[in-house]
């Protein structure tokens, strides 16, 4: 474990504990006990040779109290080292977060149904997104997770740009969502979604762009690496299963999404689970669980941005 990784863990989860040898031991014990949370799932998928995220134990042990930065309340103590610039692992990195859909899309069908060119086809400028059976909307979910992710990434030193300001508006169009990432020259961009499949289906998946003979082609490989890192971190940090109904080992490669086809920066979509599945719908409505998702996404992004 490098000094940088130690300080990263201390920053985000373990606070002052990490300055003692006991903390490292505790992390190792935790990892050992929570084997399912620390190991990678086997199988012939592209993630096998990727280095796991740096703080497997920290992710698994992250408090579910809704703290924006993942720092346990009261974790700081007089024994904590003085913060330094070196403790901001994402300094100089630009991340664009695209919270899927928007809270008022359903009131503006003409506007969001306007057809736009996504290079492989024409499709609606945006959609309403899905919702749980009891009416918790995907737009609200993606907005909340994205805000949490924004806070965590900023606490680690990243510059963050969101593609919308709140959950009370319309759009922007998928073409614009891609353009925002491009204009920001993001080191990584992530579009946050949740799926609306049949209720028996469950699990999360990550969507990775394919080459289309277009602007995304040069970043397809990097996007795949980003996707694998986020996939690994999400599995480890949330305990959610890989999708039972889409992709292979939670990776799905597509060429029909404008947000990916038009991106000139490494970009993925994450479908955090199935909002129509009762178990996942219940989890998504817990703030603490949304925090776990956000922290996991941050860890995956950080792994990609710092390896
Ligand atoms: Zn969506």
Task: Tell me what you see in this structure.
With 307 residues, this protein is of the alpha/beta class. It has two domains: 3-87, no CATH class; 94-306, Zn-dependent exopeptidases (Aminopeptidase, 3-Layer(aba) Sandwich). The chain has eleven helices and eight strands. The chain has helices at residues 3-14, 21-33, 35-38, 56-60, 109-112, 138-155, 174-183, 220-238, 258-261, 278-284, 287-306; strands at residues 94-99, 115-117, 122-124, 159-162, 188-195, 205-209, 251-254, 267-274. The strands form two sheets. The chain has a six-stranded mixed sheet, sandwiched between helices. Helix 6 (138-155) crosses helix 11. Bound molecules: zinc ion. The site of zinc ion has 5 residues, from loops.
List the helices and strands and how they pair.
Blueprint: H1 3-14, H2 21-33, H3 35-38, H4 56-60, E1 94-99, H5 109-112, E2 115-117, E3 122-124, H6 138-155, E4 159-162, H7 174-183, E5 188-195, E6 205-209, H8 220-238, E7 251-254, H9 258-261, E8 267-274, H10 278-284, H11 287-306
Parallel strand pairs: 1-4, 1-5, 5-8, 6-7
Antiparallel strand pairs: 2-3, 6-8
Helix pairs in contact: 6-11, 8-11
Bound molecules: zinc ion.
Zinc ion (ZN) binds at residues 100-101, 129, 138, 193.
């Amino acid at each position: 474990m490098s000094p940088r990784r130690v300080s990263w863990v201390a920053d985000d989860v373990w606070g002052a504990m990490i300055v003692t040898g006991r903390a490292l031991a505790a992390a190792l014990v935790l990892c050992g006990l929570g084997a399912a949370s620390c190991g990678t799932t086997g199988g012939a998928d592209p993630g096998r040779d990727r280095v796991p995220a740096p703080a497997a134990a920290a992710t698994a042990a992250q408090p579910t109290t809704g703290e924006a930065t993942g720092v346990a309340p009261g974790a700081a103590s007089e024994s904590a080292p003085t913060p330094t610039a070196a403790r901001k692992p994402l300094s100089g990195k630009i991340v664009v977060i695209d919270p899927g859909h928007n809270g008022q899309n359903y009131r503006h069908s003409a506007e969001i149904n306007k057809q736009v060119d996504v290079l492989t086809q024409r499709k609606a400028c945006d959609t309403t997104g899905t919702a749980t059976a009891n009416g918790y909307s995907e737009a609200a979910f993606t907005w909340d997770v994205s805000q949490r992710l924004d806070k965590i990434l900023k606490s680690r030193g990243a510059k963050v740009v969101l593609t919308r300001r709140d959950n009370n508006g319309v759009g922007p169009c998928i073409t614009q969502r891609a353009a925002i990432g491009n204009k920001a020259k993001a080191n990584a961009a992530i579009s946050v979604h949740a799926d609306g499949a049949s209720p028996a289906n469950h699990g999360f998946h990550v969507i990775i762009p394919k080459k289309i003979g277009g602007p995304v082609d040069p970043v397809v490989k990097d996007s795949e690496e980003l996707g694998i890192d986020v996939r690994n971190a999400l599995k480890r940090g949330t305990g959610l299963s890989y999708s039972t109904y889409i992709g292979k080992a939670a990776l799905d490669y597509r060429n029909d999404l404008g947000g990916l086809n038009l991106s000139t920066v490494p970009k993925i979509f994450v479908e955090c689970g199935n909002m129509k599945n009762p178990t996942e719908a219940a989890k998504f409505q817990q703030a603490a669980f949304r925090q776990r998702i956000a922290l996991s996404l941050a860890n995956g992004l950080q792994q990609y941005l710092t390896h």
